[in-house]
Each structure stands twice: as structure tokens, then as C-alpha cells.
Design brief:
This protein is α+β, with helices and mostly antiparallel strands. It has helices spanning about 145-150, 155-175, 175-195, 205-220, 225-235, 240-250, and strands at about 1-5, 10-15, 20-25, 25-30, 40, 50-55, 60-65, 70, 75, 80, 90, 95-100, 115-120, 125, 140. The longest helix has 21 residues, at about 155-175. About 35% of the residues are buried.
Amino acid sequence: MSAVQHPGAPRFRLRFLLQEFALPLGDTFIGRSHECQITIFDPLVSRRHARIRVFGDRAVLEDLGSRNGCRINGTLIQGSHALSAGDRIRIGKHDLVFAEVSAVAPTPRERQTGSLVFCAGCDTVYSGEMGMCPSCGSRECLDDETRSGVFNEEGKQAWAVDLLLELVNKAMSSNRADEADRVMRQIMGSLETLLKSGSRIPADRLAPFASAAIRLAEAMKDAFWVHWASDFHVRAGAAVPAILAAATARWDGHPQSGERAS
């Protein structure tokens, strides 16, 4: 998932995984097309799926005739719906949270909203914003700079993606495909953001994600992940690995589970 930077000091924003996006006055389009301000690469998302219109002190979500629709707090909407702080918007398989910036608080810049840390006690990876390890309860942690020695922003993001991949592999090894799918979608969002920013992603860095995508597709009996991984290699200018090409060929002609987007 990616977005373009908007000027000004917008009052509203959307939170998605480890990112948040400013919503300026006027229209913000959400969809699979790169022409949208917020792009979600997912076959369940229509090319122009929905629009959030901000005017005055209001923000309204409008479904643009998408095949799979939009849900707010679990309810399928028809037409337009006024948004309130904390509303959870579901588009495809993705949840976005609508938030309002306090009038007295400084307006935050568009940024990643979270960071991953290691527990100093048990080495579990968790979000630093939690304040304590969900596994052992320790409040002592090591951040990415301490553990990795990588200090530039691009390096930090790449390192965070590696940590997420570890979580995917652990979940797969424990037969928790749903959890692996959830974390893999965070990886997808981060990689799409890196690609959209113009960052070069070496082919050897993509190899572990190709393997994880194949395992996850087989576990979920859904072609989505091998198709996304193959497409991402092409868009990143990297050769599709033979193992991924073979997996994609096996799935060709097999319908993906769930509904299809328009």
C-alpha cells in the first residue's frame, strides 16, 4: 500500500498497519490503480474502489460502485457514509482506521506509526508502542538500531521487513496460516511503499519472500500470494525465480478464493 504526500495541515488521517496517511481537503481516492492517492495492491480491491471527501469539519466515505464493497465497523455501506474518529474501514481484506487530529495538538507529518523492537529477555519481536513484551511481560527492549547497526531510514524499513518475514515463517511452522497471512500483508505494504518511493530492491533480497509466498499460497489454498510475488518481481525489475514461476504456473487456471474485484 502506498500514498502520495499531501501539503498542508490536514485534520483527518487513515492508519494502515505501520503507516498513516494524511487526508487533505477535497477527495482522496482509494483503489488498486496507481492513479489513486492511496493504492492497495489486492485483487479484491477495485481500481477505483472508494473515495473519502473532506470538507469543513466532516469526512465522508463513498463506495464508487466497487464489486466487493466497503464495510465500516463490520457493516456493508451503501452510497456515502459520514466517518467518525475510530471507525474501522474494511476494503478487500484490509482494515484502515479513520482518525482525527486534535485541534490543540501539533499536526503530525505523514509517517510510519510504529516500530518493531526485540524483547531483551526472550528476544520476541513486538511493536515498541506496546510498552512491554506480550510474551514475557518484560519492559526492557532493544531497538532496531541497537540490534542491526542500520541507521538510515531505508535500512530501518528493510530491516523491519526482515523481522516480519521471521514472524511469517514462525507462524507457518506452527500451522497458523491466518496469522502468517496477516503479517505477510504488512510485508506487502512495506515493499510496495519501498518500490513506489523509487528504492532499488535487489533480487536476492526478494528470494525469501518468494519462498514464503509459495508456502502461504499452498497453506491457504489461494493463488493470491504467488501471483502478487510474481507481479512484484516484474515491477521491481527482478527476474522471477524458477521456483516462483513454477508455482505460478501450477496455479494458473485455478480461481482464487473469495470474490474478485472489478
